[in-house]
Amino acid sequence: MSTLSSSMNVAVSALYAQSAAVSTISNNLANSSTYGYKITTASFSSMVSGSGSYSNFTGAGVTVNPSQSLTTQGTLVGTESDTDLGIDGEGWFVVANSSDSDVFYYTRAGDFSTDDEGYLVNSSGWYLQGYATDRDGSVVAGTSAASLEAINVNDYAGAAEATTELEVQAILPADAEIGDAFTVDAEVYDSLGTAYTLTLTYTKTAANTWEMTVDQPAYSSDGTTDTATTVTLTGSTVTSNVATITFNEDGTLLTPADDIVIGISGWSSGGATSSIAYSCGTADATDGLSQYATGDGTADPTLTLTAVTQDGLRFGEFTSVSVDSSGYVYANFDNGISYTIYKIPLATFANDNGLEAESGTVYAASIYSGEANLVEADSGSAGAIESGELESSTVDTATEFSSLIVAQQAYSAASEIISTVSDMYDELMAAKR
Hints:
There is one protein chain. By secondary structure, the protein is an alpha+beta fold. The protein has 3 domains: about 1-70 and about 395-430; about 75-155 and about 345-390, no CATH class; about 160-315, Flagellar hook protein FlgE (Tick-borne Encephalitis virus Glycoprotein, domain 1, Sandwich), CATH 2.60.98.20. It is about 15% helix and about 40% strand. It contains 2 helices and 34 strands. The chain has helices spanning about 1-30, 395-430, and strands spanning about 40-50, 60-70, 75-80, 85-90, 90-95, 105, 110-115, 120, 125-130, 150, 160, 165-175, 180-190, 195-205, 210-215, 220, 230-235, 240, 240-245, 255, 260-265, 275-280, 290, 305-310, 315, 320-325, 330-335, 340-345, 345-350, 355-360, 360-365, 375, 385, 390. Strands 5, 6, 9, 10, 26, 27, 28, 29, 30, 31 and 32 form an 11-stranded antiparallel β-sheet that branches. A hairpin with a 2-residue loop joins strand 18 (about 240) and strand 19. The longest helix has about 35 residues, at about 395-430. The protein is rod-shaped and about 140 Å long.
């Protein structure tokens, strides 16, 4: 009787274990398209009652222990969103369940998008955490967990860049008469992004010698002069606000070899004083200003303008955010300006498989995983952050269906054992009667 009872108990344990296996397989298949999901495996181990050798062996059945392999890397797949983030290597995104929570969890599900308040939130509602930075990428409040905050991209107004460098590439007519003057208009920007036109006048004063003056700037929008400004020129060849430019006999630039600084103060817009480094080009070269005959005997000599370049930018509106492989988050504007606003750290653990699973494809630190170590992405053991990519589930559906068939057959076999033992009980009871 005890042997039959033992057989029944063993079969029941097998039913329970295979039911658990089917449950893990079902969960894996259900999450085969869940970004960042790690496959769960049902690990079986036998139980033995008594101390016997194999000659005196008494089985006690089987036990099952589901476990996830959290260190297995899922395939990164491309998307069309710059805020979809994948990790190529080790590490976890740090997230919280609200914008002001200081209780952190960890995930590989990087399908982040901007919510109505400007926070980066994934599809399960977890808020991505990062360190606030200045525009040069320096973290402003330290790199501890206490410095983390939910990343928000709604607080960034437009941006502009004042012109600091100006270059004119042109050919001045060597066959012009003394006193002939030619002009070039150059568009520049003040610190507020207001566009102005600077008129540069080149006047021939002698063979191979010219003088340059700069008029007060005019608004590019309507051409009216900003009479409130004061324009000054400084440089090695500047005297009384007039710059002297000389050329070699072969038409290449002789002087000045250094920049002429155009200073503009008192903008009516309220912009900061501008200091624009104007380059005439490289000495003994023709990459800036040069001097050659431009007339043909029947037509008057003319200035030949090739290009006017400057580094200022108009005021731009915020358009998007982007993330680089080191975790820097950039605010991008429609005038081409980009600057850093956050830095996303990655969390690493002494034992990733010791993390405790929570709903929403996130995990919590435990005594088995150890505390989170916040590190810079793409450094040390941490992987690189890939923008526009997501980590797919590590579930292989073909393998899961194969495992499902095995579990089904094992369950059926255990059911047959129970049926057989029941019949044996019936025969035993019949023999007693």
